[in-house]
Each structure stands twice: as structure tokens, then as C-alpha cells.
Amino acid sequence: MKLFNRYTLSILLFSSAIACKKIINVDLNNAAPVLVVQGNVTNEAGPYTVKLTKSVSYSADNVYPTVSGAIVKITDDSTGVADLLSEVSAGVYATNVTKGSPLHTYHLYINAEGKEYTAVSTMPQQVFLDSLTFLTTAFFGRKATNPIPNFQDIAGIYNAYRFLETVNSTPLKQIFVFNDRLSDGKYIARQLNNDSTYIQIGDTVKVEMQCIDKPNFTYFKELSGQDPTNGQPTSPSNPTSNVSNGALGYFNAHTVQKVQKVFN
CB-based burial of residue 69 (10 Å sphere; 0-12 exposed, 13-18 middle, 19+ buried)? Predict the structure, then answer.
């Protein structure tokens, strides 16, 4: 998948309908390189990382320059703790004291190559993943098996979910996102439809469920529309980032829960 002047995010999500927001088309061949941010804070133990790269033109080689020497800081609104991140490898910055907690709001500050960027993300209340089951159906003359995460949506509040699926230690490169617009407060059993990966008897399947905030759901949902393996492909364009000053990518404070099961 080639997006944003041809930069690639390693993300796996679950698809759902959402009201569309304006997407800005870009000149893939001539647009100047811009900062690409991939930042996460979770409720698991840190350190958490922020990765900084630069976009490249669509016709360029599939190499994305890293951005070193930046000042990167994450501040927790609830505790007032400000964490100056350390560059642990080229373009990868790690937290030192940040502790991710549900319902806390985190501010990201970046000063890179003389420009400043900011982002805000609030970690949602955790929704617990109860179990993982499987559904096998006939599909064009062959059987296809997909996993189903089962969980109770919390009533009365906005909930959005991102799912990452791994089969036999291989992460799937498909985009799975879902929100509770039509299922608020319901018990949800949502199939992760894989277009090209069919689970076989004896395969080990791991599903990670993330609770994400609305801006990140919008970003990942718009990104999923660019993926020809997940819905109708569209012309290359920029998903709505929560990072300021024209940067691409995302800053995502989210919960994490993982369930693993062998299909038999």
C-alpha cells in the first residue's frame, strides 16, 4: 500500500462504517517531504516509542529517511509528568518515565529540523476481550476460517476498537477497525475477515484488541480505505492526522489486551 507520498505504516485494524471527513489529495510525484509520526502510549508497561521518518515521492525507492536529533516530549495531563524522550536508534525515541493509564490525556511535542509539531490523545476506558472463537464458511469452493473476538461494549460512551491479528507468529497486514455507533452497550462478536490468509487446523492465532480514541479511529478508518485488501480502493490521499503543522501519521494513546488460541 503506497500512501502519503508513498510511506507505509505497519498497522492492522478492523473495518467499520463512519461518516467521512474531508480528505486532501496530494501531488505524489512533486510534494515536498514531510514529517511522518508513529507514536503510541499504552496501558502496558513502557517504554513507549515515537518513530519519526520523512515521506518520499511516489516514484522514489521504498526507503523512508529517519529523522534524528529531534526534541520529543510527552506530557501526562493527569499527573503533570513531562517526559523528554531519548533517541534509542535512528529516528526512534523512547519514553523514560511515562506511565500509560486509561482516561489520561497525553500531549506530544516534537521539534524536528526547526519545526514544531503537537498532538493530543486520550486513552479510553478499557473494554475487556472475553474470548476468541472461529467461524468457518464456504468461500468460492473452499473453506475459509476467520477469528471472532468476543466482548461487551460499554453502554453510554463512545467506544472504538483496533484489532491486530497474528497467525503463527506472522502479523497480518490487513486493516481492522470498528466502532460502536450501531452497537452501543451490546455484546459483540465481530468477525475479522481475512482476504488472503486462511487459518488451518493447528494454526496459532493471536488477536490484540486496542481501545482507541475518536481521532485515531478516524485516521485508521480513512487509512483502511486506501488498502485494496480491505474495502474499495481509492485514489491516494491523506488520512486525517491528529499531529499538527502538516505532519503525517498519528499519536495514539490506547489500551491493549491480547488473546491467543489454537484452531482445532
Answer: exposed
